[in-house]
Design goal:
The protein is built from 19 helices and 15 strands. The chain is an alpha+beta fold and 426 residues long.
Amino acid sequence: MTNAIAGGKNAAEADWIADWVIPEFTAAQQEAGRSVEVVFEAQGVDDEDYKTKAALDFQSGKGADVVGLDGIWIGEFAQAGYIKPLEEIAGDTVTSWDGWEQIPEAVQQAASFEGRRYGVPQGADGRVIYYNRDVFERAGLPTDWQPASWDDILQTARTLKQRVDDVVPLQLNAGTAMGEATTMQGFLPMLVGTGQAIWSDGMWAGDTPGMRQVLELYKTIYVDEELGDPILQQEASGRDASFQEFAEGRIAILLEGDYFWRSVINPDEAVGTAPMADRDTLVGYAKIPAMTPGGGVNGQDFVSMSGGTARVLNPNSANPELAWELLAFMNSLEAFRARAEGTLSISPRDDVNEQLLASDPMLSFVSEEVLPITSYRPGLAEYPEVSVLLQQATLDVVTGTSVDEAVSSYVAALEDVVGADAIRGA
């Protein structure tokens, strides 16, 4: 079961399952001397409705053997006891699967919780810095740019402000209007760049040095030095407006996911919502640096954030070993290659990406350079509310509230969500 249906939501996924996965897996099993029947429970509903159905299926001891889940739900479902680590369900064949060698450890975290693999990730994405080479050239800046620190980014933005008129130097998503885009494209990449995760060892980040450093960065950009446009952070359509302004050369630096490259500024007007005919030559991209070299999580020089979906095994399955065979088959090189026909996106497998992404240097860059250093949101029930609090904290700072007040308000609200005992301070 997955939230995909022919002619509707995620139709390409549904077609791949019905037209390739089921007949090919059935044929492979037939060759091995087994007759199997695979039934696809197609869904095409709102994500929250799908989440509720999956939870009820697990809770009642029913449901499909292989179930698609958003990676952000993994921890919540694991804590509820709805799902279990793959090895506990299907045994040693999970551990010995050769596919793990092709999925970077960082990418495996998309379907893991507390160090254990609960599923297999189905896709991958990453956050990077985009910049306009033409604007950089007009400012006398190098068009092959890779900042090594936050100071490098800020100094470049200052130079752009001094030398180029009518261009916003830097867009770092902020505010509640942009929703999760503020958290994933703005706050969290910066936070892991301070060496701190929003949740670790069972504790949420409260009034910590990292929290303050990120909010100080927002203050520098939007209040102290006016390197970004604070109005965009407050408008309901601010994110879309930032896309359009970047495409028109009116924003010089923008932090976004590879979605921006594939589906926003894609020169194919049937795909891109703000197509750039000269995207491949005009748009540069770089890794997001830690605040200082070596200062990111795990001592990293560069950081990122990723999302994605996963497939898990149902602990209630009557045929767990066979269910794992199906799951492994769906995550084979051949399966991903078939899934990619007509589309181009980053798979979780290195061998697939090496073959399919060769025609797109940017997606290859994300696959090879960004995914090995990426981080993930905590897949916990409290996270959505915590995310809104982070968005509010950035909005407070962008609209003139002091960092002290913004942090104080954030911590007070966080206590109401997770409890004071679950918050880590300085």
